[in-house]
Design brief:
Distance between the termini: 36 Å
CATH architecture of the largest domain: 2-Layer Sandwich
Largest sheet: 7 strands, mixed
Strand content: 15-25%
Strand order of the largest sheet: 22-21-20-19-23-24-25
CATH superfamily of the largest domain: Aconitase, domain 3
Oligomer: single chain
């Protein structure tokens, strides 16, 4: 049977000769990683369930979220992971190493055709080398460490054919922001995307990493590049094992195919709040900024640093503007030092930090304050993700040029005199802490509860459970913080009752892989969440935690009002509005989901 690129990778790591979309398979995982915030929970799950580590040589910790150790809870969690690693012979890429997914590529852990999982929601960045990478919650990772396998539902595949040539003034970041502008956050939700075309073949490894790193923001499972000769050679030079690159069959069947003329792509910027809210940079040119950031797993490679240095050379950051630069790995940092780039950055007035994830992990430089306007090369600008300010997303060239200008601009339009500094807002008081609630342990097949209508699409995990609480591992403490970063629902935890049902729109739980965004509802005693669709990682985390998440694309047929009583049969999918007796059908639980639900968890 002809297969797509992802299907061939998954089949080669399963007991089947071929796989097809919708099929649930156990797949062997070549590389199993945990980061510093997820790692402590992985260790806890393994210890609590008396599990062992199947193959320490394929298992690793990467401390990239808080490489400065600036938070006491992070420091405690990191140390717990180090102790566990010593006991079990696991490699630790500590606070001096950098971003785990980049390390996996550069040190040859992953190669074209391999499989890897991590507690990093951007593990799908490995699609840059034609490898299957997936972010998963700490329960999934614990199971993978214990058995070397994990269940996975084969996603449908999409093929995007790119014709034409990319303009010389466009970067890989502009390329993927154009894709986001076209497809948004949920058009390709749950799909595996493959890119083809002459312009794709020419992309460097660094450029491919930038594009693949934003698959999560598109709602996709992964963006896969067929490996080029350059990528194959790079991986062979760095690999710890032999491999044969994998390609899609010529007659592979794709659920959807799109043809794009990339010559029409323009330099783009994402406006604050949503990565897919992209506009031509001309639409936001002139907006005054307070800070700028260059780095992240999306734009922390050598080529990104070189582009920034090219623009910053001999120039100064605008008065009142803070520029922070964070290379993705220590090897890249040292290359920047050897090439003189660090000196250029420092002479321009930038702060250069040690390698790591930086701002979007809330554990290092890159955070902004209330009222602050930042332009960033990161991949996310959800409210609260990089701080309390507003974040525009752009390419390294645009960010560097804007830092010099003091306002958003392009490298070819840097003014002789920068914009003057101005105060934009005042700080507000701190948030109120709300006590948590207990939850019921019953697992009925019919759920009934009061509906909470959250009428918004693309509710991400930072809105559900903000990253500043990620060091919390006690589920009893999590409920009080549920939705406290979601506008108009900050008091949800105080008002919600045990047994209530959350009703949401499309792509609920997009964004990061944090398990806490599921566990906070369990903490409150919420009986289930029913939505039009879920973020792929979020849905897995909920299923594995035995927390019911129900997909229903016809919720509008219920004529729901806030507070209506709902009855949901998870076996049949029947959903009834008890107020008006209207009925619609949701997707019933799969055998895997129902089994895990009855067991109490994936590890139960």
């Amino acid at each position: 049977m002809a297969m797509t690129l992802l299907e061939k990778i998954l089949a080669s790591h399963s007991k089947f000769d071929s796989v097809k979309p919708g099929q649930i398979v156990d797949i062997d995982i070549d590389v199993r990683a945990a980061r510093d915030f997820g790692g402590a929970n992985v260790v806890k799950n393994i210890r609590d369930h008396g599990l062992s580590v199947a193959d320490p040589g394929k298992t690793l910790f990467t401390f990239d979220c808080n490489p400065t150790g600036s938070d006491q809870k992070y420091a405690v969690n990191q140390h717990a992971c180090r102790l566990f690693a010593r006991e079990n012979g696991i490699n630790v890429y500590d606070i001096d190493a950098g971003i785990g997914t980049h390390i996996m590529i550069d040190l040859g852990y992953v190669v074209p055709g391999s499989t890897a999982v991590s507690t990093d929601s951007h593990a799908n960045i490995l699609g840059a080398v034609g490898s299957f990478g997936q972010g998963m919650g700490d329960m999934d990772i614990a199971a993978a460490w214990n058995s070397g396998k994990i269940w996975f539902k084969v996603p449908p595949s999409v093929r995007i054919n790119c014709s034409g040539e990319i303009s010389r003034d466009l970067s890989a970041k502009d390329f993927v922001l154009n894709l986001l502008g076209k497809f948004g956050a949920n058009t390709l939700l749950g799909y595996s995307i493959e890119l083809y075309g002459n312009c794709i073949d020419k992309m460097t490894l660094d450029e491919r990493i930038t594009v693949s790193s934003m698959a999560t923001e598109m709602g996709a499972i992964i963006i896969l590049f067929p490996p080029s000769e350059e990528v194959i050679l790079y991986c062979k030079e760095h690999s710890v094992r032999d491999f044969n690159p994998v390609f899609a069959d010529a007659d592979a069947v794709y659920e959807k195919t799109f043809d794009l003329d990339v010559s029409k792509f323009v330099p783009m910027v994402s406006r604050p709040g949503e990565p897919h809210d992209t506009v031509d940079v001309k639409a936001v040119a002139g907006i005054k900024i307070d800070s700028a950031f260059i780095g992240s797993c999306t734009n922390g490679r050598v080529e990104d640093m070189q582009k920034a240095a090219e623009i910053l050379r001999g120039r100064k950051v605008a008065p009142g503007v803070v520029l922070k630069i964070v290379p993705a790995t220590d090897a890249i940092w040292n290359k920047c030092l050897k090439e003189g780039l660090i000196g250029i950055f420092k002479n321009a007035g930038a702060l250069v930090s040690n390698a790591g994830c930086a701002g979007c992990a809330a554990g290092q430089v890159g955070q902004n304050g209330l009222g602050e306007i930042t332009i960033s090369t990161g991949n996310r600008n959800f409210p609260g993700k990089q701080g309390k300010g507003s974040v525009y997303l752009a390419s390294p060239g645009i960010v560097a040029a804007s830092a010099i200008a003091g306002h958003i601009t392009t490298p070819d339009n840097i003014p002789a005199v920068p914009s003057s500094y101005r105060i934009t807002s005042k700080l507000l008081s701190t948030e109120k802490v709300i006590p948590g609630k207990k939850h019921s342990a019953q697992k009925p097949s019919s759920l009934e509860g009061k509906a909470w209508l959250i009428q918004k699409d693309n509710i991400d995990t930072d809105m559900i459970f903000h990253n500043k609480y990620l060091a919390i591992t006690d589920i009893k403490e999590m409920g009080q913080f549920t939705f406290d970063n979601l506008k108009d629902h900050e008091d949800f935890a105080k008002k919600a009752g045990a047994g209530d049902i959350v009703v949401a729109g499309k792509n609920f739980g997009s964004g990061s892989s944090r398990q806490q965004a599921v566990d906070c509802f369990i903490s409150l005693g919420i009986s289930c969440i029913i939505a039009e669709s879920f973020g792929a990682i979020y849905e897995r985390n909920a299923i594995n935690a035995a927390f019911p998440v129900i997909v229903c694309k016809t919720l509008n047929e219920l004529d729901l009002m806030n507070g209506d009583m709902l009855n949901i049969d998870i076996k049949t999918g029947a959903v009834i509005n008890l107020r008006n007796k209207k009925i619609t059908m949701a997707e019933p639980f799969s055998e895997v989901q129902y089994t895990i639900y009855q067991r109490g968890s994936l590890l139960g």
